[in-house]
């Protein structure tokens, strides 16, 4: 049982350290919406989403007022559309994306995730229709987010899908080039995607989930930073213990919000994702935590070790504060959404290669990175393959969300707005990988995947 006293103890964190509940995400199964006719399927989807999430935004706002805890986003995730719409007789799922967008606007949520396909071993007809629909779907909608899972530790990496996604990302960038290619900011390519992730753009409601659940994502880089300032210069044992204790307090706030939201909407509580998700605000940055740890800038030697310490101890503290921890859980390093990361790129301390090294120990992967619009589709596929290999071999979730900004080159700034932030265009290794990417087929799973 969580008491209000526990929440009241965090008032200072909320007022002064940018503590918030980053998102309440309602996961909704669309499996019972299946139909061969597009119009009927879309009507079923619209009615299911608007009925299930009717009170989601109001409940979030009521909890904000009652507990004084900012709840930044209210979101929805649905069954991957490539599965839910598999019976529809069509050659495009763009109308489905449009109905998802309409439903999201009707209930007032920020984003809706699940325009997704799971193709780690191969593509079905529905998977291919969905992937081909992504560029137009993300161009004509405002709130729809898309994801494609191209690999897993048990299945290996579907290199045909990796090759295809390089092309899809370029097409998506072209379709939204009048808006700094923002469509790509709503598209994630995964390895080892999880079924209960509440964070966008990669959220979808997995087929192993209940009919409808409430998942909550907490955040608090500013809180961790302030706590570490109190132990500046002390040894690593003290550093780790401080992160654990602080993560516990942050997660308890999320647990309270999740339980109350579940109770008020009569929807089962799913998980708490105890990730540290930064924002472009000064003082709410993962990179600034590294500086308090003793690094001059994110990207300096020692950065990967610092991130490993942060990620591990956030998990250790968080799992003691909630009965059900899931999602991604750890530290995010999205460049455009982190003021300190942006600064490190501008100063030359942080490169794409260093970010890739850091993804070996963080929660996700190469996230919200603007790259030159002239980057080839093969190079993007090579980047996806590298990141998927890290996830496959290390049995962790990795992802790529890069934005090839059409018409812009290294050093120029891109504005995405809101939580998506702004970013300098980063340099990409220009050496050719086309012959590697074009081999096709599937990279087999590593041997550890056969442990039961």
From TrEMBL:
InterPro entries tied to this protein: UPF0210
Pfam families to which the protein is assigned, alphabetical: DUF711
Subunit: Homodimer.
Family: Belongs to the UPF0210 family.
Name recorded for this polypeptide: UPF0210 protein BSO21_22665
């Amino acid at each position: 049982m969580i008491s209000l006293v526990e929440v009241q103890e965090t008032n200072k964190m909320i007022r002064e350290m940018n503590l918030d509940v980053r998102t309440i995400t309602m996961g909704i199964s669309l499996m019972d919406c299946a139909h061969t006719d597009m119009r009927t399927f879309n009507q079923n989807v619209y009615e299911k989403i608007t009925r299930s999430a009717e009170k989601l935004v109001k409940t979030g706002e009521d909890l904000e007022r009652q507990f004084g805890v900012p709840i930044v986003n209210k979101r929805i995730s649905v069954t991957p559309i490539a599965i839910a719409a598999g019976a529809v007789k069509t050659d495009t799922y763009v109308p489905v994306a449009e109905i998802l967008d309409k439903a999201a606007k009707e209930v007032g949520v920020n984003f809706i995730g699940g325009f997704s396909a799971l193709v780690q071993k191969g593509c079905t007809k529905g998977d291919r229709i969905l992937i081909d629909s992504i560029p137009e779907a993300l161009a004509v909608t405002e709130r729809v987010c898309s994801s494609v899972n191209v690999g897993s530790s048990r299945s290996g990496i579907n290199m045909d899908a990796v090759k295809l996604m390089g092309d899809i990302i370029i097409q998506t960038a072209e379709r939204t080039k009048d808006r700094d290619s923002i469509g790509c900011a709503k598209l994630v390519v995964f390895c080892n995607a999880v079924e209960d992730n509440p964070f966008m753009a990669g959220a979808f409601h997995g087929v192993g989930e209940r009919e409808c659940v409430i998942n909550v994502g907490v955040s608090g880089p500013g809180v961790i930073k302030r706590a570490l300032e109190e132990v500046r210069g002390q040894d690593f044992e003290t550093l780790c213990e401080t992160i654990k204790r602080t993560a516990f307090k942050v997660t308890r706030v999320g647990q309270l919000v999740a339980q109350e939201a579940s109770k008020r909407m009569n929807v089962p509580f799913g998980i708490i994702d105890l990730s540290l998700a930064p924002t472009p605000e000064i003082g709410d940055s993962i990179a600034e935590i590294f500086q308090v740890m003793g690094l001059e800038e994110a990207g300096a030697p020692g950065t990967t070790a610092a991130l490993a310490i942060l990620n591990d101890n956030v998990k250790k503290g968080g799992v003691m504060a909630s009965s059900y921890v899931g999602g991604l859980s750890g530290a995010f390093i999205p460049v455009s959404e982190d003021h300190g990361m942006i600064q490190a790129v501008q100063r030359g301390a942080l490169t794409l290669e260093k970010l890739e090294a850091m993804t070996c120990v963080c929660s996700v992967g190469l996230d919200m990175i603007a790259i030159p619009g002239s980057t080839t589709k093969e190079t993007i596929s090579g980047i996806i393959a590298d990141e998927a290999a890290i996830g496959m071999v290390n049995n962790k979730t990795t992802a790529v969300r890069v934005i090839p900004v059409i018409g812009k080159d290294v050093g120029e700034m891109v504005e995405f707005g809101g939580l998506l932030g702004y970013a300098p265009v980063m340099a990409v290794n220009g050496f050719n990988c086309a012959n590697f990417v074009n081999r096709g087929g599937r990279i087999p799973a590593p041997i550890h995947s056969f442990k039961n």
